[in-house]
Amino acid sequence: MHSVLLLFTLLTSVFGRNYKAAVVEYSPNVGALGHTVTRDQALELMRSNLVQYQSFVESAKSQQVDIIVFPEYGLNGPNFNQWKDVYPYLEQLPEVGTNPCDTWTNNATQKGREVTFSLSCMAKSWGIWIVANFGDKVKCNSTVSQQQESNEECPPTGYYQYNTQVAFGSDGTLAGKYHKMNLFYEPYFSTPVNQKPQKFTTDFGVTFGMGICFDIMFKTPLYDLHEEGVTDFVFSSWWVNTPPVLTGTVMQQSWSKVTGSNLLASNSGYTWHSSGSGIFNSGSTLTSWYNSNANLQNVSKMLISEVPRISFFVEEVRRKVKENENVTSNPTMDGVVVKPVDITPHSKGSLDILLPTITCRLQYQIR
Hints:
The protein has helices at residues 12-15, 39-62, 83-86, 100-103, 107-110, 114-126, 143-147, 219-227, 248-259, 310-323, and strands at residues 3-8, 18-25, 67-69, 129-139, 159-168, 174-179, 199-201, 207-212, 232-236, 262-266, 277-281, 284-289, 301-308, 332-333, 336-342, 348-354, 359-365. The chain is 25% helix and 29% strand. The protein has 367 residues and is of the alpha+beta class.
């Protein structure tokens, strides 16, 4: 007879084993389509969006939010045609583990990286995790570019240009940096070749996988991270809605259901065509918003929800199984009941879990 340990837990809300998340459906100030600007003009536009980010962050922190997610192209919009169009909006991002707010102490160190510095200090000032999206540039033929080789020749700007998702910790540290792997008609961005799927771990005990928009349609990187055991994901998007099936929230909810994961999805509120944000738990909608009105434009709103810690229970299961490999009795440990179960093919049975005020019964059948 073979046996495994089934671990039963009470609802996460009973123990408060949640974290609090916010996603922002944001309509950014954008530049003119295909219009090349100076760095100062690009910075002025991005700063106008950072001012709005600041108001959302302040509101989120006042509601005890742990992590807030902003959309793809949220700082500059997607109105680019060529390499040179997006170049003024790019910054050379530092290595993960760098804290710009603490270490870039003068104008010289901040110059050309003003947005990075602002996001770092925003996260530190409010003590909140911030996930945002903008452009990273890596000089061709540099040590970094050799490690992050692109599949294109060096662009005429002299830099590989990446659509990038960043995560800043509550102390301002750059905790995660991900270059979009699956571009959607973005000829002004490079495709990384040697990059591995990226993730980061927060100080509130949750590890998040990182993904941008079209990535959700491919195995790499998001599903690869799921197969590695990551249960929570941050997703920045400027989706292209194609009703009735390929709308943003439909894709987000279905992906969360298929993977049994938590998905924090932030989309653009520019028009209905790019709308659709939400927070999803194993396919259950905790909160969502989709603008179905073609006449309603430039919508910005924040969605907030408590999110069950799936990762907590995955880790708890693994730990309890390891601790109780030879358990034949039925001990209880902090709401967890461990019982041996026959997994011989075609076996079936039921288990009763006795709690002070209720009895839970599980019926199972092994196919």
